[in-house]
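Z., the sequence and structure:
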Amino acid sequence: MAMSVNTNAGAMIALQNLNTTNKALETTQLRVTTGLKVNGPKDDAATFAIAQNMRGDIAGMQSVKTALAMGEATTNVAINAAKAISDLLIEMKAKVVQANQAGLDTDSKDALFNEFTSLRSQLDTVVQSAEFNGKNLITSGATALTVLSTVEGSTITVGAQIMDATTLAIDSAILNTNVSEAGTALTAIDAAIVSVSNNLASLGSAAKRVEIQGEFMVQLVDILKQGVGDLVDADLAEESASLQSLQIKQQLGVQALSIANGGPQSIPPALRLSRPPSPLPQPRPPQRLGFFHRTCYTWRDERIQTQDLVVFGRARIYRRGPGDLWPKNRRRARRRSRGVAAGLPAQRRGGAHLAPGQRAPRP
């Protein structure tokens, strides 16, 4: 692959993979946060649409369940009131039977009649109190109760069962006058007991229907909720493992992008811009050793590589520019260098013998 500083293909690929990893990481974090693998139509349009329809059915069934619960409560109030009325009628029958005994004086009959009247008044009180949410099924003028049972609008009808003293025909019973009236009261009480029992049976059967339908709606709602959960709920164990994996991939992606961005730095040094040449070092001043002077020069290209000049006295070698000698002095230095190497006397080395302290003539 061609190496370029303008287009870094490796960095582009690493950035694409890193963006993909970041997007998957955001999706996984959203699933872990909400607990849903389908949070909207972008995740899965078909599944989201099905789940929304099922959620609508669940909401409707929740309303039906509420209506059934209210209908069941109203019916239960009526049933409990009817049971109390039945118990009162049984006590009233006992008083009537006792009043039918021969040989009772007037005071005893009056006492029994007063107690009978008190029980009858209590019966009317129970009838008036049997009301729930503004609905009374056993009072005079009561109407049937219609309970919603399905989302489509089906209903369960609970008929009114009127149980006041007038309807039961015991409002005019008398016990303290003669035996025949007590017998008539006994017949009315028996008929009232039978009537209340039948009313209780009717209320009980209707209440059972409402209860069964309510339990069925509860089960149906639970099944639908479970179905919605199977469609849209996320597997948190799987998502947690995926979250850790994506976090590691994200870290590796960042490192890969950093390596790819550093690719142009690996261009060979020959292709880089060359640095300007550093200036030549200045020659050190000659060191005085007695009357010997040693001067070392380093030259490049066509210049002398290394020269050790040993002269008597103080010899000055002049340079015309950086790293350049006067031709005369350069030839003299070469002759002296060859003479010192051959062991020749000073006169034969290309220079005159100088006495100690005598200065060499200026060239």
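The longest strand covers residues 292-298. Residues 287-328, 346-354 have pLDDT under 50 and may be disordered.

Let me know what you think.
H.
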